[in-house]
Write a structure and sequence with these properties.
- Strands 3-2-1-6-5-4 form a 6-stranded antiparallel beta sheet, with helices on both faces.
- It has 2 domains: about 1-75; about 80-175 and about 210-260, Beta-Lactamase (2-Layer Sandwich).
- Strand 5 and strand 6 form a beta hairpin.
- Helices cover about 50% and strands about 15% of the residues.
- The chain has 8 helices and 6 strands.
Length: about 260
């Protein structure tokens, strides 16, 4: 998830960005320096270093500027950890309101996951430019390491999972009363689960999904579809009225945070 992985990376990239930015500013200043004066005041080693910089500045400066641009863009793609922290807090609040009658249950039995749409995502399953919905934030503090990304290509009939179907329809999608796959699932139940969730039978059989109900909610930003939220629960049904009211309260704050990222 973005929130769990961005803290360390974002900070280290910020440090590296600062160092590279410093050298990209200071090196052009060295071009006008007098090597003899540098030698007299700082010694022969400083003179040799200055001459090296002056002779190689033609390639050093462009590389530094390109590196600064790439790192800055990548940091913006990762997003500020503080913003991701706010987003996760909103997802936690959403979960608490929606499952207020299940507060003693295990956290991973009722989850809310935010997926972001990427046109390009490095993936060995299919062509990276296929279009993907990637999990970027999830309620709770467990099951944060997720590889549950779903294909979302322009060809709508090929979308995968509740996330993909919600994306292609750009509308709320509710799937209750799914078969129980926890204990000795039958082939029929696996087939039903796969059909109702738009996931391959092979994947369902391998993972033995515990969720008995799902709900997908589209997430728009500035009038454009940004991604989706997927709710999965061990309960066979969700409280739809509570869901709609809770999401409306969270969505306006979620949109404001996403706008600033």
């Amino acid at each position: 998830m973005k929130y769990s992985s961005s803290k360390l990376i974002y900070g280290r990239l910020g440090w590296l960005l600062g160092v590279l930015s410093f050298f990209s500013i200071i090196i052009p200043a060295f071009l006008k320096a007098d090597s003899n004066k540098v030698k007299n005041s700082l010694g022969e080693f400083a003179e040799k270093l200055l001459l090296y910089i002056q002779q190689n500045a033609w390639w050093m400066i462009p590389i530094l500027l390109i590196s600064v641009y790439i790192i800055d863009r990548y940091r913006k793609t990762i997003g500020n950890p503080k913003d991701w922290g706010i987003i996760q807090s909103l997802l936690n609040e959403f979960r608490e309101k929606l499952f207020s009658d299940c507060l003693n249950d295990e956290l991973h039995h009722h989850r809310i996951t935010l997926y972001k749409y990427y046109q390009f995502y490095p993936c060995f399953r299919r062509w990276p430019w296929s279009g993907w919905l990637i999990p970027v934030a999830r309620s709770g503090h467990t099951t944060q390491k997720s590889d549950s990304y779903f294909l979302a290509p322009d060809k709508a009939e090929l979308v995968e999972g509740i996330a993909g179907q919600t994306w292609s329809r750009n509308a709320q999608l509710y799937v209750p009363s799914l078969p129980n796959l926890i204990a000795n699932p039958t082939d029929i139940n696996i087939r039903k689960y796969a059909e109702k969730t738009w996931i391959s039978e092979q994947k369902v059989r391998a993972r033995k999904y515990g969720a008995r109900s799902y709900c997908g909610l589209p997430v728009e930003l500035n009038g454009k579809l940004w991604g989706v939220i997927v709710i999965d629960s061990y309960n066979t049904k969700l409280r739809e009225k509570v869901l709609t009211k809770s999401y409306n309260n969270v969505a306006k704050y979620l949109g404001k945070v996403l706008e600033g990222m």
